[in-house]
């Protein structure tokens, strides 16, 4: 009998480990949020056995940076880019962005297409090139003008310059963002929401196309009763840059609070739909 090649055996075993690697979900919050926004989803997904990472972008969550001093999108999104850079070559993630977190997801697919198995946009800004044109702004920036003066603004560059940060006024947060969410989550959000670096988002432009970026599978999760990113606005972005699948969830702008169990089910279904098996 020929002698077995131990090197081949070791290689095959390692390959099997990589193939059967549990899906790793990475969650990105919207403007003013933080990793805390995903606490319900993280608990559920971890109970299913999945690896979960929730990140704070610059000035968000427990990051101490001043949002009025973050003037570029690259600076704001650096924690996500640093995280993806730290992954080994054989590690891959399912990247999930909520609301303005969709811009972070798109940026990441341009820079690390080979490390992202699936890009998921949840009630999110999904623009192929970011805010390159006036139409991009119209398509991707929420219009909440019907609620009046919604935002508290700060002018870090001076009163005669454009605002550098913004947050939805505390008394309007439940009505606009969380009208279907449990009261305890509304209370948590009103305590933890921070001004987002408004000025930085103006430079969210993705001019250079990576050859592999379009190969990253994308799905969109449409929030049916959203008062921030309204369903018709989501439909326009979907039509302009069609993903492989569109899922609909009955929720306000924050399904991570108002319908987390269904959201988790959709995330798993979306992953399976692109040809992977959740072990």
From TrEMBL:
Residues 25-260 form the AB hydrolase-1 domain. This is Methyl esterase 17. One of its GO terms (molecular function) is methyl salicylate esterase activity. Keywords: Hydrolase. It holds the Pfam family Abhydrolase_6. GO terms for biological process: jasmonic acid metabolic process; salicylic acid metabolic process.
């Amino acid at each position: 009998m020929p002698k077995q090649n131990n090197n081949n055996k070791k290689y095959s075993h390692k390959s099997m480990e990589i193939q059967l690697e549990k899906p790793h979900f990475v969650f990105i919050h919207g403007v003013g949020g933080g990793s805390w926004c995903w606490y319900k989803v993280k608990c559920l997904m971890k109970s299913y056995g999945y690896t979960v990472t929730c990140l704070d972008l610059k000035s968000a969550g427990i990051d101490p940076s001043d949002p009025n001093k973050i003037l570029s999108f690259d600076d704001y999104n650096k924690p996500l880019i640093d995280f993806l850079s730290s992954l080994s070559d054989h590690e891959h993630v399912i990247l999930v962005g909520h609301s303005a977190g969709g811009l972070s997801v798109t940026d990441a697919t341009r820079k690390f297409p080979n490390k992202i198995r699936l890009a998921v946009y949840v009630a999110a800004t999904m623009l192929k090139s970011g805010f390159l044109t006036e139409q991009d702004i119209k398509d991707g920036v929420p219009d909440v003008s019907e609620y009046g003066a919604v935002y508290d603004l700060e002018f870090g560059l001076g009163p005669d310059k454009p605002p550098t940060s913004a947050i939805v006024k505390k008394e309007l947060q439940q009505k606009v963002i969380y009208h279907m969410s449990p009261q305890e989550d509304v209370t948590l959000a009103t305590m933890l929401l921070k001004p987002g670096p408004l000025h930085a988002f103006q430079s969210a432009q993705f001019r250079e196309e990576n050859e592999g970026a379009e190969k990253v599978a994308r799905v969109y999760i449409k929030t049916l009763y959203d008062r921030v990113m309204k369903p018709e606005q989501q439909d326009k972005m979907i039509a302009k840059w069609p993903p492989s699948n569109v899922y609909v969830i009955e929720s306000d702008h924050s399904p991570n609070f108002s319908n987390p169990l269904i959201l988790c089910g959709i995330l798993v279904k979306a992953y399976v739909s692109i040809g992977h098996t959740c072990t």
